[in-house]
Write a structure and sequence with these properties.
- The structure holds 2 protein chains of 2 kinds.
- By secondary structure, chain A is α/β, with parallel strands linked by helices.
- Chain A is 42% helix and 13% strand.
- Chain A has 2 domains: 4-11 and 260-382, Aspartate Aminotransferase, domain 1 (Alpha-Beta Complex), CATH 3.90.1150.10; 16-256, Type I PLP-dependent aspartate aminotransferase-like (Major domain) (Aspartate Aminotransferase, domain 2).
- The longest helix of chain A has 39 residues, at 243-281.
- Chain B folds into 3 domains: 6-127 and 170-185, HUPs (Rossmann fold), CATH 3.40.50; 218-276, Adenine nucleotide alpha hydrolases-like domains (SH3 type barrels, Roll); 279-355, Elongation Factor Tu (Ef-tu), domain 3.
- Classes of the chains: A alpha/beta, B alpha/beta.
Chain lengths: 385, 356
């Protein structure tokens, strides 16, 4: 049996049209965009075309796009760059964030606290992992350098009320960053309408290549570069442009935006079927994250009396690639911070399972998956030491 | 998966378990590689332990070469409970533990057979050197490996019929040299690693250092006395000594002294000359009979009281409930409480138990 992939939130297979758009820039049009000769100009042209495509997709100015090596680098740049700048320019010394961020944000915040001496305030989240904009209002302070709230949670899929949170930040004059690495694959994001000052995206979540992403920065938001060197990206991100990958990012985002209308409803329907079937057929299982305000392709659960890492291993051997949500493969069970934050007890939190669907997912695959899952969960529960 | 029988191979990254996996593939099994993560202490990750990041990398590389799936299973909690705590407790009680034997019995086979159930797999295979045969009435017999020098039947002697019936030792009929040739043949680049000699969880630490860090055992100094009770000197904490030890006693004498006993209650170390050393009779408890039932007793067996020790002839006899009296044909100098006595008849393991 061909293995079935249900882990599109981890990464996606690259769209062939994306690959085709990238290929000329490896061998033929190989010029360095920073060179003044015609080779370089063609490279620069490709990067600028990509910028325009992305600016249209996200409703921002082309010059506000900073190309990076991916979501993690974009998060690092947004957090460290903005916080350090705000400290220098106005003595702001606090960061306001949530306990349900991706490690790319959470661990950068931790370093800003431990090494750089920033104070960190954590917003409360409800049992779905959602932030209330009123809590942002209550917790934002005069010396808050930056607010960072994840757009849609990678582990539990919950989508935050981003434009309301952004509006609060804007009224207080505090820059607002959101990690939209998951969200950008499923939602048409409008950075202007949604009051977003800094937005993180990464290409490989929407059928683009791994190793490329961008930070979208509203005009007027100032930050220090965190990678210094040449003056690429207006001095905000030094290093020779990764031309083919930047082209790939733009193509992938354009294709994604165009196909949302068609694909999202199909995937959402499959996802809803999956949730209903699992909740109906497996005892002692609970959906995590918001039942409706969640990524269209995302289903996450906790299963009582199950070790999520073990479940993922057995499912893999049975031909189904999924995740336990905490992306742990070294056999080191630690309950997920996100599940802890939404009040799941530690022993239950170890029983997490994340299923994320994509373009190639079919109803037949899900039928076969659910049948195996029912059998495997029963087997694991029965044979526990 | 097809109708192939499915075997889980316990892989350590070393040449033995790698070849075991290759042989199972060759036999036509569907093979899955498993590594148990038993212990992690960032201060003591050494090359020869079997679940270090380096060992994981090696095992993953091998699995990738063989195109088999490979998973690391966490077993740190049970390992700590069954092996490390036992090691510590033994030292507190002044007996010498045998952590590897206990690990096989209480941790490895336990966890791996649980995995077998989880995977709904048919067999477990390991890279141990021992032979396993099945007779006409479906009883499994554990025997010495073809390669006598590498034989590991001693540390496997705690396994039961249920465990053995689901186990395969693919290297039992091979010599170490043949295993190396096989590794070459299959193109496995498992570099010959320094073989595990020390306890995996000690790392670069000595047992004494390890125990001291855990603040375990009575490390008070005390008297060293001879068998008549004469005080000959001072010792620096009983956990530092093992029965039969000669070096490190630091008492000048014409004839060397050996440790014969540790008295935890009085914190005394009893030493003696070789001439006074040794015994023939001792008691064994916690018995495991490989065939699942007691052999006829009294009976004659080949007795082994340490890993790699020479076997000697002995008789075993039923004592009280759950106890066996062992009478060796020769004087044994290192009958060590806490160690494992294994009984053989010919090539076959009859059973084993803990020396009292």
């Amino acid at each position: 049996m061909k293995p079935i992939y249900l882990d599109y939130a981890a990464t996606t297979p690259m769209n062939h049209r994306v690959l085709e758009s990238m290929l000329p820039f490896f061998e033929v049009q190989f010029g360095n965009p920073s060179s003044s000769h015609f080779f370089g100009q063609k490279g620069e042209g490709a990067v600028e075309d990509a910028r325009v495509l992305i600016s249209r997709a996200l409703n921002c100015q082309p010059e506000n796009i900073i190309f990076t090596s991916g979501g993690t680098e974009s998060d690092n740049l947004a957090l460290r760059g903005t916080s350090l700048f705000a400290r220098r320019s106005k003595g702001a010394n606090r960061i306001l964030t949530t306990p349900v961020e991706h490690p790319a944000v959470a661990n950068t915040v931790r370093q800003l606290y431990e090494v750089f001496g920033f104070e960190v305030d954590y917003l409360p989240v409800d049992s779905f992992g959602m932030v209330n904009p009123d809590d942002v209002k209550k917790n934002i302070k005069k010396d808050t350098a930056l607010v960072s709230v994840i757009y849609a949670n990678n582990e539990i899929g919950t989508i935050n009320p981003i434009n309301e949170i952004g509006a609060v930040c804007r009224s207080h004059g505090v820059p607002f960053h959101t990690d939209a690495v998951q969200a950008a694959a499923h939602l048409a994001i409008d950075t202007q309408a949604e009051n977003i000052d800094l937005l993180t995206i990464g290409a490989h979540k929407f059928y683009g290549p791994k190793g490329v992403g961008a930070l979208i920065k509203k005009p007027g938001i100032q930050l220090f570069p965190i990678q210094t060197g040449g003056s690429q990206e207006q001095g905000m991100r030094a290093g020779t442009h990764n031309v083919p990958y930047i082209v790939g990012l733009a193509t992938a985002l354009e294709l994604a935006e165009k196909s949302f209308e068609k694909t999202e409803s199909r995937i959402r329907e499959l996802r809803d079927f999956l949730i209903v079937t699992i909740l109906g057929q497996i005892p002692q299982v609970k959906l995590t994250g918001h039942p409706t305000q969640r990524l269209s392709n995302h289903a996450s659960f906790i299963l009582q009396g199950i070790d999520g890492n073990q479940l993922v291993i057995i499912l893999d051997r049975a031909g189904f690639a999924c995740s336990s949500g905490s992306a742990c493969k070294t056999g080191n069970p630690k309950p997920s911070e996100v599940l802890k934050a939404i009040g799941v007890p530690d022993d239950l939190a170890l029983g997490s399972l994340r299923l994320t669907l994509g373009n190639q997912t079919t109803k037949r695959e899900l039928d076969s998956f659910v049948a195996s899952l029912v059998e495997i969960v029963a087997r694991l529960r029965k044979n526990r030491l | 998966m097809s109708q192939k029988r499915h075997v889980l191979v316990a892989m350590s990254g070393g040449v033995d378990s790698s070849v075991a996996a290759a042989l199972m593939l060759e036999e036509g099994f569907a093979v899955t590689g498993i590594m148990l993560n038993l212990w992690s202490d960032p201060t003591c990750e050494t090359q020869n332990a079997c679940c270090t990041p380096e060992a994981q990398r090696l095992a993953k590389t091998t699995a990738n070469q063989l195109r088999i799936p490979f998973y690391v299973i966490d077993a740190k909690t049970i390992f700590y409970k069954e092996v490390v705590q036992y090691f510590v407790k033994s030292h507190e009680q002044g007996v010498t533990p045998n952590p590897c034997w206990v690990c096989n019995v209480k941790v490895k086979w336990n966890v791996l057979l649980e995995q077998l159930n989880y995977f709904a797999a048919d067999f477990l295979a390991t890279g141990h050197y021992a032979k396993l045969t099945q007779d006409k009435i479906n009883i499994f017999h554990l025997c010495i490996a073809e390669d006598k020098k590498k034989d590991q039947s001693y540390v496997l002697s705690g396994l039961t019929q249920n465990e053995l019936s689901r186990t395969i030792f693919p290297l039992g009929e091979l010599t170490k040299n043949q295993v190396r040739e096989n590794a070459l043949h299959y193109g496995l680049d498992t570099a010959e690693r320094h073989e595990s000699q020390d306890l995996c969880f000690l790392g670069p630490k000595s047992p004494e250092q390890f125990l001291k860090e855990l603040q375990v055992g009575d490390n008070r100094e005390g008297d060293i006395v001879d068998s008549k009770g004469n005080i000959l000197g001072r010792h620096d904490g009983l956990p530092s000594y093992t029965i039969g030890q000669r070096k490190g006693i630091k008492i000048a004498a014409a004839e060397p002294y050996y440790v014969i006993r540790k008295e935890v209650g009085t914190n005394k170390l009893i030493i003696s000359h070789k001439s006074e050393l040794g015994a023939k009779n001792f008691i064994v408890t916690n018995l495991n009979w490989i065939l699942g039932r007691e052999p006829e007793m009294p009976g004659t067996v080949q007795l082994q009281i340490r890993y790699h020790a020479k076997k000697v002839e002995a008789t075993i006899n039923r004592s009280k409930e759950g106890k066996i009296e062992v009478a060796s044909s020769v004087l044994l100098r290192d009958i060590t409480p806490g160690q494992i006595a294994v009984f053989y008849t010919g090539e076959e393991v009859v059973g084993s138990g803990i020396i009292q």
